[in-house]
Structures are given as C-alpha cells and as structure tokens.
Amino acid sequence: FTPNHYFVLEDIDRNGKPDFLFLDENKLTVFNENKKEAFIHEFENPITSSPIIFTFPNNVCKIGVSDSEDEEVFLFNADGSLYKDFPLEGKSPFSIGHFDNSSLQFNLLVGGKGNFLYNYAVN
User: Fold this and answer.
1) What gap in Å lies between CA 43 and CA 82, rounded to an integer?
2) Average model confidence (pLDDT) for the chain?
3) What average pLDDT does this structure show over 27-36?
C-alpha cells in the first residue's frame, strides 16, 4: 500500500473478529481475521477520504465511500456488494441517521453540486 492509504479495523461481517479495511488510491480491499481477502472494489478515481463504517439495526455493518471526482457515494454490504440504489450523487463524505426516531427510514446527508446538501432516503 502507498504511504497515503487509509486503514480501518472493524468487524464488518459481525463474526466477533476484526476485519482489515484498506483504501489505497482507487482500491478498497477488505481482509478477514485470517488475512484472507474478503473483497476488492476498484473505483474509477483515487479516493481522497477515509471509508466510513455504519452500523444499522440487527448489528448489520456497511462501508461508505465518497468519490469526490465523479461526485458519487457508495454504500457496500459486508460481502462487498453495493447496497441497493447505490451509487448516489454526492461529492463529500456522508452521514446516515434518523431525523425521527420513530421512523424506519434512514436519511443519508451528503454535500452536492452548487453547495447543496442532498438528503436521500435509505431503507
């Protein structure tokens, strides 16, 4: 990996053992606890911000990545597949949460073109 890579230690597959996430230039690589490659995703452009780990109900883990050059945000499942309806338009790191705790819907907030803030519903 280059000196400018990002590293995150997180139990992505929720098996009780940490997984190793590396984001280096345009490649996201996840290794399991045995240092075996779980998945790789190559982006069109170099990624300039760290991946973000999100924990959803039932202890489900997802990985968020922002491609500021193509202005797209990605949300990956623990197996490396893209979450439904992704990528979405956006050009900044993003956050996912509830505006209303009684709602089952999550909101994804991300910076967009023209300094707008985009609010997507994530189910």
Assistant:
1) 12
2) 94
3) 96
